[in-house]
Write a structure and sequence with these properties.
Elements lengths: L5 E5 L3 H12 L4 E5 L2 H10 L4 E5 L7 H11 L4 E6 L4 H9 L4 E4 L4 H28 L13 H13 L6 E4 L6 H10 L8 E5 L5 H9 E2 L11 E2 L1 H4 L4 E5 L6 H13 L1 E3 L6 E3 L3 E6 L3 H7 L4 H7 L2 E4 L10 H15 L6 E2 L1 H9 L5 H15 L4 E2 L25 H15 L4 H8 L3 H10 L4
Helix pairs in contact: 1-5, 2-3, 5-13, 13-15, 16-17, 17-18
């Protein structure tokens, strides 16, 4: 999470260090700076950081040397490389050495914050994958929870067969089922696993920015294009590009993406130069693309190009046998992360978890366990600890339920416990509860807590 991040900026340009500090200080927990690579490594020896912003061109130790040291000695630290000497070769080389992404100078504070936010999310994903490998001992050995249920065994078999090939894969699944984790697992087990895995989030980018993000742009091609930008496809050259929520792209972008799949070449926005690319394409969607084809909102030729091998991830309610190991994994994970000592999930609470339909799938289950770990005052999670998290009261045995409580009483208690968790910090409490600070203040006054 950005608000808890510890960030180190390593750059020999004082004005650049100050600019990065100012751009990130309001959102990050802590921002430190170093004037060269050696100083940066000395700081890393003394303190733990989540992310490093690293200039490639510095006197003394080069940025590439510092990057290699960081990835060898601090593999959990994510690195974003910045430089005023931007080339595709240096960007790809940095990513091959373990950098998350590459940002050419000059850049805006907004673009810096955006890439740092994505990098921190990726770091969290990597840490979760490491934990999942050791805790669940998934038979494929890495990035995605396969589980032991019959539906997931069949998916594992398909994944094992398709991974070593360059075949295009289309992953279907509801939100929270793990589509990106599946795509990363396919990449990891492919012959391209030493090359970049680049995500193109089709669901978060507006039409006017999507082409630039995907294909790149040249300096001066539109207002605000102050420097040449390398697109996702160019940076993924030799590796895999993952189109998340592919069903959201416009017909115009669909046409251009189809050309990429057919010709394996791109053209930057504002340029006429054709650039050859060698990428494997994996796409994912939570939409029915066949219905979109029939409705005329998705090109049929693009659909057939993408869905050479379709993989449908089932919702969690269709693989309930996987809920207990997942719940126990999340229990251990958040015991460590939140420094709690909750020993177990009771039999009746586990029964409630298994019987719940989980419309948010694995992501919702994870949130439920995290909140229960944080807020319970016992060493075992009971059914009553789960009532706050969307579980239907009908899933809880009647013998476990006390006399029904007023909704206002439940809300008041929940706010009190959350405030306690964050040491009375109202901003963090409001963010956790999913409400703004004004709403929180109103509720505190209503319940006499101010």
């Amino acid at each position: 999470m950005f608000s808890q991040a510890r960030i180190l900026v390593i750059d020999d340009d004082e004005s650049m260090r100050d600019s990065c500090r100012q751009a990130l200080a309001r959102k990050a927990s802590r921002v430190e700076v170093a004037e060269d690579g050696l100083s940066g490594l000395e700081i890393l020896e003394k303190e733990a950081f989540d992310l490093v912003i690293l200039d490639l061109k510095m006197p003394g130790l080069s940025g590439m040397e510092v990057l290699s040291r960081i990835k060898q000695e601090y593999p959990e630290v994510v690195v974003v490389v910045i430089t005023g000497y931007a080339t595709v070769e240096s960007a790809v080389e940095a990513m091959r050495h373990g950098a998350y992404d590459f940002l050419p100078k000059p850049f805006t504070p907004e673009s810096l914050r955006a890439i740092v936010g994505r990098a921190l999310d990726a770091r969290e994903l990597v840490l979760e994958n490491i934990l999942l490998r050791s805790e669940l001992e998934a038979s494929i050995g890495s990035e995605v929870i396969i589980g032991k249920s019959e539906p997931m065994r069949k998916i594992e078999e398909v994944m094992r067969k398709v991974s070593p090939t360059d075949t295009t894969v289309l992953i279907y699944g509801q939100s929270g089922t793990g589509k990106e984790l599946m795509a990363r697992a396919i990449h990891r087990h492919s012959s391209r696993n030493g090359k970049p895995f680049v995500v193109a989030d089709c669901g978060s980018l507006v039409e006017s920015l999507f082409e630039s993000e995907l294909f790149g742009h040249v300096k001066g091609s539109f207002t605000g294009a102050t420097a040449t930008k390398y697109g996702r496809l160019e940076l993924a050259n030799g590796g895999t590009v993952f189109f998340d929520e592919i069903g959201n792209i416009s017909m115009n972008v669909q046409t251009k993406l189809l050309r990429v799949l057919q010709e394996r070449e791109i053209t930057k926005v504002g340029s006429t130069q054709v650039i050859k690319v060698d990428v494997r394409v994996i796409a994912a969607t939570n939409k029915d693309l066949q219905r979109a084809v029939q409705a005329g909102t998705f090109r049929d030729d693009l659909f057939y190009r993408l869905s050479v091998v379709p993989i449908a991830l089932p919702p969690l309610r269709e693989r309930r046998d996987d809920i207990p190991p997942l719940a126990n994994y999340f229990l251990k994970k958040y015991n460590q992360k939140r420094k709690k000592d909750v020993h177990a999930i009771s039999i009746k609470a586990m029964k409630a978890l298994v019987e719940h339909d989980w419309p948010g799938n694995v992501r919702e289950l994870e949130n439920a366990i995290e909140r229960a770990v944080v807020l319970t005052e016992n060493d075992t999670i009971e059914p009553s600890d789960l009532l706050y998290y969307g579980l239907n009261a009908s899933t809880i045995p009647e013998s476990d339920m006390e006399r029904p409580r007023r909704l206002a009483d439940v809300e008041k208690e929940h706010i009190v416990r959350t405030l306690k968790m964050f040491g009375g910090h109202k901003g963090k409490t409001a963010e956790w509860l999913g409400i703004d600070r004004k709403t929180l203040r109103s509720k505190l006054r209503r319940y006499g807590l101010d």
